[in-house]
Amino acid sequence: MPPFSIIISTSTKGHPKVMTTALYPDTIKVADRVIILGQALQKHFDRRYGGHGCLDTVFDVVEGRKYWKIMMVNNQESVHAFIDKKTGDVFKPASWRGPAKIVRYNLLDEVSYGECIARADWAGGYLYMR
Predict the structure, then answer these.
(1) What is the pTM of this model?
(2) CA distance linking residue 38 with residue 124, whole number of Å
(3) Partner of 112 for a Cys bridge, out of 15, 38, 71, 106, CB 3.0 to 4.6 A?
(4) How many other CB atoms sit within 10 Å of the CB of residue 39?
(5) Which DSSP category does 57 fall into?
(6) End-to-end Cα distance, the chain
(7) How many Cβ atoms from other residues are within 10 Å of residue 122's Cβ?
(8) From CA 41, how far away is CA 46, in angstroms rounded?
(9) Are 33 and 88 in contact (CB under 8 A)?
(10) What are phi and psi for residue 120, nearest 5 degrees?
(11) Are the CB atoms for 59 and 95 separated by under 8 Å?
(12) Could you report the average pLDDT of every consecutive run of 10 residues in the chain (130 residues)?
């Protein structure tokens, strides 16, 4: 499939510069599903702790060079999960900077995506191996 393209025009010291970013259909699908996963995590947290005003926790999706990073932000930030931007593989975080080696789910596979959304909980228990 041919990629979709986004053309970004910027200027550097009066010289126009045009950059083209290719977005393949699978990467768009992964991005959409990462956002849906983040919303599912927020919904689960709000259902569990919604009545408590002191628990202002938000799940943010941050784009990196290779991975989407789902962050849990309250009075501190922590990484909830890493998602490979090209393949849609979901990883448990090994550290702040990188994922664990074993793939937990795949957001491009319909069955795996369904299981991921159904099991998603704010604490990350669905990311542990069964």
Answers:
(1) 0.78
(2) 12
(3) 106
(4) 14
(5) -
(6) 36
(7) 19
(8) 9
(9) yes
(10) -55, 125
(11) no
(12) 37 44 74 94 88 75 93 92 96 94 96 96 89
